[in-house]
Structures are given as C-alpha cells and as structure tokens.
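Input.
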Amino acid sequence: MDYFRAVALSGEKSQRVLDLTSFIISHNPAHYTVWKCRQDVLQELKSDLHQELEWVTELVESQPKSYQIWHHRQVIMERLNDTSTEKAFLNDMLQDDSKNYHLWTYRQWLLTHFGGALWDDELSDVNVLIDQDVRNNSAWMHRYFVLVNRPGGFGESLDDEIQYVMTKIKLAPRNESPWNYARGIISHNSKSLDEITPVYDLAKSYINSKIPQALLYLLDVYELQLETGDKSALNSAQETLNFLIEHDPIRAKYWSYRHAELEKLQHS
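Output.
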C-alpha cells in the first residue's frame, strides 16, 4: 500500500498504476480510494471500457455482494453508454441469487438512468422470479418499483393487479410480501384498504386459520375505519388483536400494547 500511496500522491496515471489497482482490488475489493484512482486512470488513458466491463464482470461474479464492485460497474456503464447486454447479464446473476440487494439497486439505477427499451419486459422478468419463489420480497419490491416508475406510470388496471396478488397470497398466505404489495398498490392508487373488498374478503376467509398476516391486514382495515370515526370497528379490531396475541407469540407483547391503546380509545 505504501507503493500505491506514493503513486497516488504523485498523480501518475499510467498502465502500471492501472495494473497496481488490479492487484490491490484482487486482494481487497472494498478499498474505495483504489477504485477512484482506477476510474481516473481509465479516463486519462482512454482505456477500452468494454474490456473493463469484462474485467468487472469476472469480479462481480466471484464477489456479488461487494458494493464497490457494483458501483464501479455503474461508473463504467455510465461512461460506456451501451446497455445492450446488461439485462441479460443481470437476469443470469439473479438466477444465482435473486435477493442480492446490490444487484437490485444497480438494476433500478440502470432502468431510471437509461430508461427507454430497458423497461420493456421488466415486469415479465420479475414475474419469472416471483413464480420461482413467491416469498422473494426483493422481487415483490422490484415489481412495485417497475409499476410506479416506468414510463406511463402504473398503467395496469388496479383490478388486474389485485387479482394477480390474490393468486400469490393463496399460494402462501403466511408470506408477508404479497400482503404488503397489496397495501402498496392500493395506497398508490389513492384507495383505502376497506374500499378494495376482494382482498378484505380474502383476509377474512383466513380468520379461522389464524394466519397472522391476514389478521394484520384486517387490523389495518379496522384501524383505518376507526381513524375515520367509525367506532363500530372497535370490537372487530380488539378481536383481531386477541387472535394476534394468541397466534403470533413472538410479537405478543406488542399486540398487547396495541390492544391496551384501543381500550383507551374505547373509554375516551
């Protein structure tokens, strides 16, 4: 590192400095200063960025959880301005790890920075991942990101989206991801949870099964009704909290606290 510090202080931008950064990165890819030096040298030397992209591809495939590697790829992609093979590369990477936070962050940057045809098939790409693993919260979050950020906005019929998410809830009703997704798309469309009766009715159908995720959705509905002045929802909210106290023991103390707060409301 003394050698690197010396060349960094000298301001030298040469092939030997580029080779030095390659060596250091191979041993410590988290060294931000070395990455910045490399980026400056690449620009000064007018290096082949397609070749650099191949190099960083090898790195990211071997160390996919490195923020610095993904950030360097972003810098190179921005300079290269050629996304022709990037989505195929990312789709292949997602088959190895479909919940890699850095990968999803990079993908969303790619979409918002370059836009255009990159949005095409993005929804179908993420649907493949949800079909493979309905519990993949990263894929659910990306689906929401696509619907609200792509050109033209949401676009999809809310009714169609509700039907889609309900089919996924039925596959794994204890999975929080589609329940949260339902909340998100309903809110984004300026609707309240109690206005969307299909999801509300689906949640009620799981009462006897004591599924916490469905009960929590119902609780959200009842508390929303209470906030709008509908005191008739108080008993339903209290009953739902009693179910949660019994059937979600990990958070029982929290549900007991919520129940106590409702009792205060009852006597106010």
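The mean pLDDT is 94.
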